[in-house]
Please model this.
Amino acid sequence: MTVHSQGAMTAAPQDAPHKPAGRPEETASPTGPGPTSPRGGRKSLPSGWLPYLLVAPAVLALATLLLYPLIKNVILSFQDINKIEFIQRKYPFAGFSNYTQLIGDADFWTVVARSFAFTAANVALIMVLGSLIGILLNRLGKKMRLVLSMALVMAWAMPIVASVQVFKWLFDEQFGVMNWVMRSAGFAGYEQHNWMQTGLSTLTIVTVLVVWGSIPFVALNMYAGLTTVGAELYEAARMDGANGWQTFWKIVFPNLRPFFLITTFLEVIWVFKAFTQVYAMNKGGPDRASEILPVFAYVEGQSQAHYGLAAAISVLTILILVVVMSFYFRLILKQEEEQ
Amino acid sequence: MSSPTTTAPKPAQQLRKRRPVRPAAVVKNLGALLLALVFVFPVYWMFSSALKPSSQMLTKDPVFVFTPTLDNFTKATGVSNFWTYVTNSVLVTVGAVALALLVALAASFAIARMRFKGRKGLVLTVMMAQMAPWEVMVIAMYMIARDGEMLNSLPLLTAIYFVMILPFTIWTLRGFIAAVPVTLEEAAQIDGCTRGQAFRKVIFPLLAPGLMSTSLFGFITAWNEFAMVLILNKDKSAQTLPLWLTEFMSAFGNDWGATMAASSLFAVPVLLIFIFLQRKAVGGMTAGAVKG
Model:
């Protein structure tokens, strides 16, 4: 659960078997409790206001606390709000100046490039290693499979803020285990190596943390998917003399293609907005060198008091996410239709 | 077993008997063991450091064998206003989950059992809301809260967490409700129940396991949330445990033992819930993603 709002939490949950759509329903008696004449046959739909009444609280909640902040975010990005305006609570309209300022700012592009590189590296590692471990799980005996999956569940379940603290301790300059491991492995220069010395090094640790925490989701789901492929297919492939590599590309991958695509998109979304991991690790430091887009927006707004600019960064970040999400939803909807 | 090399469906085969140990199997099992160690090590190190006496904590080479002590936990929980953080965290998560369950039950019942104008749009909205980039909306939320004089407000935080977990809750409950055969409801109504009674007496009891696991997932999300509370509640009296955990080092200097004890305390409830829920967590996505 890691990059993911602890991953699983946002994964599309299991959907129960659908009823065929268009099935007529019992009429609702919109009068609360009270005897109704029992009906044998089904009548057509309960229309009227009952369903609207039932969904109203949910719609209202989403509108006030999700839609409104999103709209507010866009409005803020067109306003000029710095320290003085913030204190006076007067937010003058600024047109596109926040956006033009960003686009002309080399630092912004550095952060964008960093975000993309960080996401690409993490997702590639998560998908490749996660799939390999999933395949391994599928080939293990019962006992070893239990051992490995329990270990995976442990890593998956660790709350992000807690695991960040643990990784800071593992990579501690003076007494961290990692420096000891490096020394024991015979590397020089790890007497008191500061792992947070550069932005790249900091993000490398964040990557280790994110990959460690995200692999379980991919591996366990991959294993679950592999069990649906069916042993006789593997058997047949083996009989035909296919090696492991061929079996994977000819049998496993085509069968699990939707899984790979959906998981990859989910991971891209989760990693791209991995605010907590990066911020809790080193607050985007040293010297702002490990900021990815969401952290960049936060620091610009909170520490630098450039609220309008921060809102513009958020809008652009959300737009990038929307592009990725649209791919994801196309896939999900296709799945829905196929079922 | 020889079989023709066709892909024609074969009768279910007996599971193959385990062969005598081959080197490949040894490598496989050793690899798995090593991987298990890698994945579990940070978790183990957290607990082990939390129980380590401070004299054996800050050594050049790590100490693996020691007499466990609870000193670090005493230190961690002895922080001024530790219980404020605990109370806030519990209040906010429980409040958010309870609200989400109530609101989601109504909405998911409508979505699963009724057809009405705008239903499809609502389903889509819920799906999209599930992916809402909350971490990227903190600045806007901060401005709204400040202009509405709602900074450092636990009710606002509860409301935000409630909306965060609402889409997921609606989505899962809808699945659980759809899984209950309509005929059960109809039978109850034939026996003279109203629709409301049929829901209360027939569907609701069948939903209990679903409600349980759904609310635990919601609980974890709210329990772990960091970005919103970081920006909205700068006041220590309105902060939750994730902030307590990240502020710990600055408050304690370099006390890794106490920090690990704090992290353990924070992580244990989640680890327990996860072990309990792991079956439900896995396969949820793939069930929909893999053509069976």
Summary: Chain A touches chain B through 138 residues (CB under 8 Å). Residues 164 and 280 of chain A are 7 Å apart (CA to CA).
